[in-house]
Structure formats: structure tokens, C-alpha cells
Write a structure and sequence with these properties.
Layout lengths: L2 H5 L1 H5 L3 H13 L3 E4 L5 H11 L5 E4 L9 H13 L3 E8 L3 H7 L6 H4 L2 E4 L6 H12 L5 E5 L11 H11 L5 E5 L5 H11 L4 E4 L7 E2 L5 E2 L2 H6 L4 E4 L1 H4 L4 H18 L2
Parallel strand pairs: 1-2, 1-10, 2-3, 3-4, 4-5, 5-6, 6-7, 7-10
Antiparallel strand pairs: 8-9
Helix pairs in contact: 4-5, 6-8
The chain binds 5-bromo-uridine-5'-monophosphate.
């Protein structure tokens, strides 16, 4: 099947080329899984990506949790992501003023040089998006921002007014490819989709085949329910890297998410 048949309005209405790249990869691999590769060493990261790579459509990192991060060691992960046709998504959750966010795209991690997607909070004001885009422009690259419209953790302060303001900031922005939604609640994802419309993506953490409470306030919903409610990518961490057999788990998440996409109107 062609991506436009599978994705319908999402394909035709999402103008951002990065969104199309993700959607094409997802169809080719039959997976809406973004792997949250929360590993502490580059070796572990590269091994994980090389084993589950065929079953995932994007790769999410937290570079600042990696003990042996260096620009040289990180390049091995960037190469692995490229080999598996994965957009590289640094979940940095920028939250400072625009000018500082621009500088934070550089620095020791040099996120601007390798990340295709980053996350940002809306809390400091709408200019954070321009700051991040300026960071990419400094190295003549283009990337996409996912704004945190909701979170999966219990007790978070992102209420529906905040969500609405966040969508207002992102709507029509060439730099905002979509939003983070709360994958643990199909009701919240559906409400977010309703406000966003069809022109931008929603990516959802808080997803696990074992539904319920996770550790330290994390909450989990079923991948199928998140996708049926309007999520375009399920962000899965421990459900895959913590499984006894990560490859088998990645296949299960891929299948659950892709079947749900095919069932979605
Ligand atoms: P888990 O092991 O599947 O619970 O990992 C979830 C990942 O998603 C982890 O890397 C978090 O940083 C990330 N996350 C989240 O869990 N909830 C949120 O609201 C946001 C990100 Br934003």
C-alpha cells in the first residue's frame, strides 16, 4: 500500500517533509513505534537499534543520560539510525527563552547537528520554537519540533487551557511537526486530536501492552487505543528495551500499532 492510502488525511494535510519521511518509513516497516532508547551507554544503544531497527519507525534518545557520550561515540548511533532509516529524535524538552534554546542546540551535545526532531515545552513563550529553529539554521539543517501539549506522568500541570495555548503556538508553524500527547489516556488523545485537526502529528509516550501504572508516576495505555484515538506514533521504552526478548516485543508493538492505523478512519 502507498503511504497516502494508509495515512489518508494525515498524509495530505501534514505539509512538513519530515512528517512524510516518518510516515513513509512507518508504512515500509509496518510500524508506528518510536523506540525510547533509554540506555546508559552508546554500545547498548547501538546494539539495541541494530536488533530492533527493522521493526521501529523512529528513534528517541536522551543524550544527557548516556555515560560515555562524546561526539565521536555518538556518531556510531547516528550511523545506526541512518542505516535503519530512522528519524533521530532527542527528547530534550527545551524550556528556556528562545535565545538560550538556540545556544542549547549547540553546546557539548550539539543536538542541532544530529537530531531531526526535538521536544519543547510551551511554558516560556512561543519564541522557543524560533530559537530551536535558529539552532538548526546555524548548521544549515532543518528539523521539527514536537511541542508538549500533554504528558503521560500523573500529576502533571498541563491542563486543557495550557494544551489549547500550545496548539495555538504550533498551528501553522513550519517548524512544529506536531505534539506530544498522553498515550496513557485514549480520551485525552482523542481530545487533543480534536483540537489539532488533521494537519499535524501526535506522538504519544505512556504506552505499554501491560496497561496501568508504571514506576514513579508513569501511566500506560494500550498502543491500539492510543492509535485509534489519533496518535501517529507510539513512543515505547521499557516495553521494548526492558523485555526479555526486545526483538519479539518490538514486533508486537509494531503489529498492534500498525493494525490500529489500518483500522482508523
Ligand atoms: P517508558 O519506559 O515506555 O515509560 O519510557 C517513556 C519514554 O517517553 C521516556 O523516554 C520518557 O522520557 C518519555 N516521555 C514520557 O514518558 N512521558 C512524557 O510525557 C514525555 C516523554 Br513528554
Amino acid at each position: 500500500m502507498q503511504p497516502q492510502e494508509v495515512w489518508g488525511a494525515r498524509w495530505s494535510d501534514c505539509a512538513n517533509p519530515l512528517a512524510h519521511r516518518y510516515m513513509e518509513t512507518a508504512v515500509r516497516k509496518q510500524s508506528l513505534v518510536c523506540l525510547a532508547a533509554d540506555m546508559r551507554t552508546v554500545d547498548e544503544l547501538v546494539n539495541l537499534v541494530n536488533s530492533v531497527g527493522p521493526h521501529i519507525a523512529a528513534l528517541k534518545t536522551h543524550a544527557d543520560m548516556v555515560d560515555d557520550f562524546s561526539r565521536e561515540s555518538w556518531q556510531r548511533l547516528v550511523d545506526a539510525a541512518q542505516q535503519h532509516d530512522l528519524l533521530l529524535f532527542e527528547d530534550r524538552k527545551f524550556a528556556d527563552i528562545g535565545k538560550v534554546s538556540q545556544q542549547q542546540m549547540a553546546g557539548a551535545y550539539d543536538i542541532r547537528s544530529w537530531a531531526d526532531i526535538v521536544t519543547a515545552h510551551r511554558i516560556s513563550g512561543p519564541d522557543i520554537v524560533d530559537g530551536i529553529a535558529a539552532g538548526w539554521a546555524d548548521v544549515e539543517r532543518i528539523g521539527g519540533v514536537l511541542l508538549l501539549a500533554q504528558m503521560s506522568s500523573s500529576g502533571n500541570l498541563l491542563n486543557s487551557d495550557y494544551t489549547a495555548n500550545t496548539i495555538e503556538t504550533g498551528r501553522g508553524s513550519p517548524h512544529v511537526i506536531g505534539y506530544i500527547g498522553n498515550g496513557s489516556s485514549a480520551t485525552e488523545v482523542a481530545a487533543l486530536r480534536n483540537k489539532v485537526g488533521t494537519g499535524q502529528m501526535i506522538w504519544t509516550p505512556g504506552v505499554n501492552l501491560a496497561v496501568g501504572a508504571g514506576s514513579m508516576g508513569q501511566r500506560y495505555g494500550h498502543p491500539r487505543d492510543a492509535v485509534l484515538a489519533g496518535s501517529d506514533s507510539i513512543i515505547v521504552g521499557s516495553g521494548i528495551h526492558g523485555a526479555e526478548n526486545p526483538v519479539a516485543a518490538a514486533k508486537e508493538y509494531a503489529e498492534a500499532s500498525y493494525q490500529a492505523l489500518l483500522m482508523r478512519d
